[in-house]
Design brief:
Length: 416
């Protein structure tokens, strides 16, 4: 039996209407899904476990965001997707982001925390809070969709659980600066070597890894050099030992590398025959040694270079004058000999220059008067000779100048 003629006539019109209705349904702000009740309940229960601690006692934060204070199911704020610090998936309504950084939360997180019911979370930031010596529960594995996890400066202590290595989607993991004092003893986060190696082996998508001041007391695994996506590596003050893998310097995307404060860590800077994206390099207070290669001057993106308290020797290469984006250069407390390179006068963006406690000789280069952005200049405790250059009076931004314990002669220029 055929369709009526009138239906054929109106079919294009009906198709247009249905299409418009579909487009309106998908795009209308009034049709967005509300927060799921389970997620809302989990967030409110999480809130009840904490108090807002005086901001002056939590890492000297000037203010607290107190985002959780606005969480309520009453009135027009009943949808948790509208709560401060909460992000929902626009299609499903599930909570996918939780940012409670600097909320001055005080309390503990345990294995029963309702936080681990938010299984759709992709981003979790609990930094700058006070979790009062909590351990990171192994239930963190339930947040299997996490891409970003930031727990820095939140007074977590104890052993980092192996289950963190199961979060295979992580691109950013920051557990840095977690410690507290108890009865005069320093307690920190700890990461045993087998767990460290498992973490590096499984989290192959990492772009940022910061474990600064996590107690490792181990060698740096060579497998770190396999994380080709890594842009940020922070291992400051971890008790690292042994030789630092040269391959890490060759990571193609690495922009920030900080291994300072590990006196048991040895190593050297290789000669670089490639273009490096490094912007920050800090190997200060380690046992790195050897000659500073001329190719260090190829780090054209560097803004921060610190090598204080190491065992570097021979002369300071003049190629450092090529690092024209540098803001901070610290070569103090090494065994450098020879003159201060005149090429350092090219570093007109410098705000801090430290070359103290070396064995440098010769005059203070006049060209240092070009560094008009300097706030701090320290060339003390060397064997520099000759007069104090009058041209240092050009450094009108200086707030700190130390030229003591040298063999300088003549008067200090009045302009200083």
């Amino acid at each position: 039996m055929g369709l009526p003629l009138s239906l054929f006539i109106f079919m294009p019109f009906l198709f247009v209407l249905s299409t418009l209705h579909l487009v309106f349904t998908l795009s209308s702000p009034f049709m967005q899904p509300l927060c799921h009740h389970d997620d809302s309940s989990a967030l409110l229960q999480f809130k009840k476990n904490f108090i807002i601690k005086n901001s002056t006692s939590v890492f000297f934060l000037p203010t607290c965001d107190q985002k959780v204070a606005s969480w309520t199911v009453e009135g027009d704020k009943s949808d948790c997707c509208s709560w401060d610090g909460v992000e929902c998936d626009e299609h499903t309504g599930h909570v996918i982001g939780l940012n409670l950084s600097s909320n001055c939360l005080f309390g503990s997180i345990n294995s029963n925390s309702s936080l681990f019911r938010l299984v759709h979370l992709q981003s979790l930031n609990l930094s700058y809070n006070d979790f009062n010596g909590s351990h990171i529960p192994s239930q963190v594995r339930d947040l299997s969709r996490l891409i970003d996890l930031d727990l820095r400066l939140s007074r977590f202590v104890g052993q980092i659980p192996l289950e963190i290595s199961q979060l295979s989607h992580l691109s950013s993991l920051d557990l840095s600066y977690n410690y507290m004092y108890s009865f005069g003893h320093l307690i920190t986060l700890e990461l045993k070597e087998p767990i460290l190696r498992s973490l590096v082996a499984n989290l192959t998508s990492l772009q940022k890894l910061d474990l600064s001041y996590v107690n490792m007391s181990s060698t740096v695994p060579n497998s770190l050099a396999n994380l080709s996506s890594l842009t940020h590596l922070g291992l400051r003050g971890c008790g690292l030992q042994g030789e630092f893998p040269k391959g890490i310097f060759m990571l193609p995307n690495l922009q920030h590398l900080d291994v300072s404060g590990n006196k048991g860590l040895t190593g050297y800077l290789p000669s670089f025959t490639w273009s490096s994206p490094l912007e920050t390099l800090d190997v200060g207070f380690t046992s790195f040694s050897g000659e500073l290669p001329a190719s260090t001057g190829n780090f054209s993106f560097l803004t921060y270079l610190s090598m204080w308290g190491c065992n570097f020797s021979r002369s300071i290469p003049s190629s450092l004058g090529n690092l024209t984006k540098l803001n901070v250069l610290d070569l103090s407390d090494n065994y450098f000999v020879g003159n201060i390179p005149r090429s350092l006068g090219n570093l007109v963006q410098l705000s801090s220059l430290y070359i103290s406690y070396c064995q440098l000789t010769g005059p203070v280069p006049l060209i240092l008067g070009n560094l008009v952005q300097l706030f701090s200049l320290d060339i003390s405790n060397n064997q520099l000779t000759g007069p104090v250059p009058l041209i240092l009076g050009n450094l009108v931004q200086l707030s700190s100048l130390d030229i003591s314990n040298n063999q300088l002669t003549g008067p200090v220029p009045l302009i200083l």
